Amino acid sequence: MFGFVKGLAVTISQLPKKKVTIQYPDVRPEWPERFRGIHELIPERCIVCGQCARICPTSCISLSGTRGEDRKLRLDTFDISFEICILCDLCTEVCPTEAIKMTGEFELAAYSRDELYKNMEWLYDNYIRHDGVRELEAAGEPRAVPEKAGERGE
Amino acid sequence: MADIRTEEMLMNVGPQHPSTHGVLRVVVKLDGETIIDADPVIGYLHRGTEKLAEDLQYNQIIPYTDRMDYLAAMLNNYALVHAVEEAMDLEIPERAEYLRVIVMELNRIASHLLFIGTYLLDLGAMSPFLYVFQDRERIVQMFNEICGARLTYNYMRIGGVKWDAPPGWIDKVKAFVPHVRKTMGMLDDLVTGNEIFLNRVKGIGAYDADTAIAHSLSGINLRCTGLKWDLRRNRPYSIYDRFDFDIPVGENGDCYDRYILHLKEMEQSLRIVEQACDQIPDGPVMGKAPKFVRPPAGEYFSAIEGARGELGVYFVSDGKDKPYRLKFRRPSFLNLQLLPSLLKGQNMANLIAILGAVDIVLGEVDC
Amino acid sequence: MIAFFSWVHQALTWGTVLKMVAGALIVLFFLLGAVTYMLYFERKVIGWMQLRIGPNRVGPLGLFQSFADILKLLAKEDIVPAEADKPLFLIAPIVAFIPSFAVMAVIPWTASHVFTADIAVALLYYLALSSITIVGIMLGGWASNNKYSLIGGMRSAAQMISYEIPLGMSLLGVILLAGSLNIVDIVEAQRRFMWFVVPQFLGFCVFIVAATAELNRTPFDLPEAESELVAGYHTEYSGFRFAFYMLAEYLYVFAISCLGATLFFGGWSGPLLPGWLWFAIKVTAFIFFFFWLRATMPRIRVDQLMSFSWKFLLPLALVNIVLTSIIKYWVNAG
After folding, report:
1. What's the rounded Cα separation, in Å, for the pair B314 and B325?
2. Torsion sign over Cα C143, C148, C154, C160
């Protein structure tokens, strides 16, 4: 009898405890190093081997390249459709030159489906915004960082 | 007065309904508030995972398994890689096996915690849902640290696991275990003793072991009838034979037993996690697996104890790097079979209590 | 000020009618404000108990959240389902809502009866008016022509009727002790004697259970059990008609809290502090208790609910009445 009194004691004992809510748009969550967010791409590193496109389970990556004068393949286009990308990380796993990596960016809401189709420029900007900031500064090469996602190359 | 004309009412519960746990639809025929007939309609979340898998390499299928039982994705990962590894007779490094066991048991705890939260939410108690979510959140954060995702882990690979644990992770898991015990004690105080709750679940939706076997139920839905059947014990796989844990069973096979078994199983999972954290050796986490996984031609079946029951993977290989046919034995789907016969003659309010206690995940039912 | 509004003892002229209307309007707006902040208080308290922070975006500390919600509801389209019984559908929320305001007429805010009616059969008036709301709820459930609404409405009618009887019975003990149906007399009796919660503890227990059920609040919130019936009787309602139902529900929480504080905890009486403050403290404690219950309890099942009322609560209330009468007779005789 009166087991519910114990329950009442539990709920009221929570009253003064510290609250766990993160006020999201104001306070951003801290993601660990390995977090699998939206991709970033460094076109100079890419050797157009196409492994990422082949391993992708949803075939959301398409890329093309041409052979330059020095007989090396250069990346011309690289598109990821985030409508169908499942952020599984397999493309970055197979990439031999670490040209494609994943960032801590996770906000993909958009007003139209077309906006979710990200091209090479956007992905490079994403690199500048994330890992690029650190790497370029370390190399003594400061560069204007694009303010918002999708500012260049829709 | 004798011949008042009454009508039966056909009511649609779902697919958009607050407590059908996703997009399950139950068409119930009601006489007043008594259910005369119930007909679950499934398929609203069908994505054709099995058919898609025929076009994918074995490693590519792993992210798809994440999306079946999305509350226990680690166990799904393991079911697939375990089946392929058995087919190819691969050697798995010790450390990888331990890491797998730790994440699987943590995932089982997370899944059971969520079951308790949502079940009580269905029964009208709001707070337990938010209490259990704190502990689940900590588990999810730890998974985020080890594999970079909170829900769809894609952590295991054929031959090992993708990442080693980050520094300090094992200690974090160890420190986390007492927290879950505390939460479980709190749940006991808050819910298990509550008379209203007991009245709603005791003796409701009871069935015996024969019925359970006839409907090929598994997991807690089977063990609540008193049958001691847990694949971790009865057909040991991975390194489960090294740990000391019990298989809790119920007595009456009612909703209360199913609820309390979830709590008891969490305790056993905690014991496994503790032992695994103490025993874990150093070493590599990825064994020698060929780049293109080509199991020898033939049929293979292997099953593990998932969070909801026996999670089996059957596949036919024709020697290529893609399966000829892949079939998942999804426990949620099979556990749902008993629902219509359980619901017949019950009160409308019991529909929620019975359906919730079956613990289905629609991603797995529809696959 | 007080003399201006004490129209009860004046002759009925146009002037006093005007004063009556002004008094009623003041109470109306006060109640709207009270209900608005009760909503805010509920969400904050339940949020804190669940380790959340509750509303905090609109205004400082989220203080304007309820205003925003109400404004949103008022601005929304008033949707009438095509197959609904239109006149009934339109009138039902009003039928449910008006008695909830009317019952507030007999609640004594302070010792001097400002704004409110000092009528001799106040308790009877309260019980009689509050049962009209059931009609509104049942009509709403029926007129929506929705199966969830229908079941919700029927459950609601069955529940409120069965719990009204123990509620009334539990008040009988208080009436016996005070010897009056007038709420002011009851408070005065408590000032002379002691808070009735002590001699009427059994009656108080029955009262609090029956009141929770009467209010359709957790653990007796079956009519709107969202996990079974989506939203119960107001599934099809939107905009300000939905707001009427919500207002009625929360006004009754307020009214029952006022009644409980008056009948069992001595109303405005108390040492040191002014009467209205004592009253506010007691009412707030009652309201907090209802919210606390809501944060803790699962929902009771519908068949158990009925048997609980008829087989347990009602006999208990009857035993209470008999005991009270015997004790009163014995005390008077002795």
Report:
1. 8
2. negative
* Alpha-carbon distance C300 to nearest alpha carbon in chain A (angstroms): 13
**Tens-digit pLDDT profile for residues C33-44:** 888 888 898 888
Scanning B2-31 for CB atoms below 8 A from C yields 9, 11, 17-19
Which chains does A contact via 3+ CB–CB distances below 8 A?
B, C
Distance from CA of B356 to the nearest CA of C (A): 10
Name the residue range of residue B355's domain. Answer: 50-366
Q: Residue B11: inside a domain, yes or no?
A: no
Residue A35 has its nearest CB partner, among B134, B144, B163, at B144
Per the structure, the count of domains in chain B is: 1
**How far is residue B265 from each of residues B193, B223, B360, measured CA to CA in Å?**
19, 11, 17
Render pLDDT for A107-145 as a digit per residue (tens, 0 to 9). Answer: 888 899 888 888 888 888 888 888 777 776 777 655 555
Residue B228 lies in a domain: yes
Number of domains in chain A: 1
- Helix pair C147-178, C183-192: axis angle to 10 deg: 50
**Contact yes or no for C52 and B130 at CB 8 A:** yes
Residue B35 lies in a domain: no
What's the CATH code of the domain at B286?
1.10.645.10
- Is A28 part of a structural domain of the chain? no
Instruction: Express each pLDDT in C243-268 by its tens digit.
Output: 888 888 888 888 888 888 888 887 77
First to last CA, chain C: 46
Contact C50 B19 (CB under 8 A): no
The ipTM of this complex is 0.81
**Which residues of C are less than 8 Å from A21 in CB distance?**
51-53
* Cβ–Cβ < 8 Å for B215, B337: yes
CB contact under 8 A, B349 and C228: yes
Domain containing A109 equals 35-138
- In this structure, what CATH number is given to the domain that contains residue A104? 3.30.70.3270
Per CB-CB distance under 8 Å, the chain C contacts of A10 are: 296
Residue A42 forms part of a structural domain: yes
Residues of C in Cβ contact (< 8 Å) with B354 = none
Examine residue B101 and state whether it is found in any structural domain, yes or no.
yes
Q: What SS3 class is residue A117?
A: strand
> Is A106 inside any structural domain?
yes
